[in-house]
């Protein structure tokens, strides 16, 4: 299931990216992303009445110096995109609690004929290369500290900074914030407190890279928090009826997955009900963070499975290197060698393993959705050939076999 749902995730992202043009509102993009995930996941496993599926992280669209978690309500002031904006789109999907998250950064209006230069190009290139380095370092036997050190060096090469204290999490079924983490640009105290960990076979990680042209210090920008998740370790008897009604619906629909207040039919009651829940820590807020005005933040996130023969990235990258030209580059010899090395897994001849009909059916369902969605996204259609699409299904099906065998 895990290797199959990512095909839907990547192409939902491409749908939102393709729609993010000058004059489009951030609210409409968030609504578009969430609606697509809900609609398409509702079409599969209909006979599995108890199986939950849908949004694992609501669509967030954060622009320029807004770092993350911007997912406005209808009652909030909207943001209209314009040419030159640096846009970050972040979202996630799950089937039966198996999660895949992805995020992408791009500049509105940039073209191959007129590629971007300057600080925006620097920060996007830095973030992309940090993600590529992580893909090669997050593998069995390596330490999380190796990734942190590489990120600091790459960002410094582009005169940028990783956002201080941001975490990439291990993923487990129904758990979006697992025990093992990778920290960005930690303070001295965070270095002491953050637990060192070794990556192990069959673990899954959402690797989240956030790089700034500024000092990398993100703060609450004063915007309304709209994204929350249930803290399963907290218990409290809510006093207000509105709070109890809100909390009951939240648990029924989202369980421990992050959600947006926009998902509730009565937005006013949701805004009222969430107050008592958050006050008593039944819910964890995803605060809308900002860098200093005038700075720019780029984000790339991907989901990776740690297989015995190497890491398997299961969310496709939409990055187009020819769109961004920076005067800076990575000069550290070890990092240059790392980035030039192959990120592909070592192939191993294996005996054929039995795989369930449901897993194969799920793989090919999402492949079908992939082709249909990309055919509607003219800006990205030329990137994907039938050969590459076929290879994606082959890899997804093979991964499904390996996962079931491991289980």
From TrEMBL:
PROSITE patterns: MAP_2 (PS01202). Gene3D superfamilies: Creatinase/methionine aminopeptidase superfamily (3.90.230.10), Winged helix-like DNA-binding domain superfamily/Winged helix DNA-binding domain (1.10.10.10). It holds the Pfam family Peptidase_M24. Keywords: Signal. InterPro entries: Creatinase/aminopeptidase-like (IPR036005), PA2G4 (IPR004545), PA2G4/ARX1 (IPR047113), Pept_M24 (IPR000994), Pept_M24A_MAP2_BS (IPR018349), WH-like_DNA-bd_sf (IPR036388), WH_DNA-bd_sf (IPR036390). Residues 1-19 form the signal peptide. The keyword Nuclease does not apply. It comes from the Eukaryota. Residues 18-191 form the Peptidase M24 domain. Belongs to the peptidase M24 family. This is Peptidase M24 domain-containing protein. The lineage of its organism: Eukaryota, Metazoa, Chordata, Craniata, Vertebrata.
């Amino acid at each position: 299931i895990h290797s199959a749902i990512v095909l839907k995730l990547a192409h939902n992202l491409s749908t939102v990216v393709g729609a993010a043009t000058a004059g489009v509102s951030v609210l409409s993009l968030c609504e578009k992303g969430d609606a697509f995930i809900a609609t398409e996941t509702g079409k599969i496993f209909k006979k599995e009445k108890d199986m939950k599926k849908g949004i694992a992280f609501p669509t967030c669209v954060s622009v320029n110096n807004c770092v993350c978690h911007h997912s406005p309500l209808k009652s909030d002031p909207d943001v209209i995109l314009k040419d030159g904006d640096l846009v970050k789109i972040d979202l996630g999907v799950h089937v039966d609690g198996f999660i895949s998250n992805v995020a992408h950064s791009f500049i509105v209006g940039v073209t191959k004929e007129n590629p971007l230069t300057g600080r925006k190009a620097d920060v996007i290139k830095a973030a992309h290369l940090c993600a590529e380095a992580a893909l090669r370092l997050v593998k069995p036997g390596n330490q999380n500290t190796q990734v942190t050190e590489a990120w600091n060096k790459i960002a410094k090469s582009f005169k940028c900074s990783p956002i201080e204290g941001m975490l990439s999490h291990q993923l487990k079924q129904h758990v979006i914030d697992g025990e093992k983490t990778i920290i960005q640009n930690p303070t001295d105290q965070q270095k002491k407190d953050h637990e060192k960990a070794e990556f192990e076979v069959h673990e899954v990680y959402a690797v989240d890279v956030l790089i700034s042209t500024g000092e990398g210090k993100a703060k609450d920008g004063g915007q309304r928090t709209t994204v929350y998740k249930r803290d399963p370790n907290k218990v409290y008897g809510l006093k207000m009826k509105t709070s109890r009604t809100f909390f009951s619906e939240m648990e029924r629909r989202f369980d421990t997955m992050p959600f947006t207040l926009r998902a509730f039919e009565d937005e006013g009651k949701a805004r009222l009900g969430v107050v008592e829940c958050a006050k008593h820590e039944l819910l964890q807020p995803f605060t809308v963070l900002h860098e200093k005005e005038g700075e720019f933040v780029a984000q790339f996130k991907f989901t990776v499975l740690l297989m015995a023969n190497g890491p398997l990235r299961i969310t496709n990258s939409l990055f187009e290197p020819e769109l961004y030209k920076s005067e800076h580059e990575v000069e550290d010899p070890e990092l240059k060698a790392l980035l030039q090395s192959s990120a592909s897994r070592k192939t191993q001849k294996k005996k054929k393993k039995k795989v369930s009909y449901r897993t194969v059916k799920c793989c090919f369902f999402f492949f079908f959705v992939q082709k249909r969605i990309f055919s509607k996204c003219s800006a990205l259609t030329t990137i994907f050939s039938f050969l590459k699409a076929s290879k994606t299904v082959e890899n997804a099906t093979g991964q499904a076999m390996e996962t079931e065998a491991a289980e």
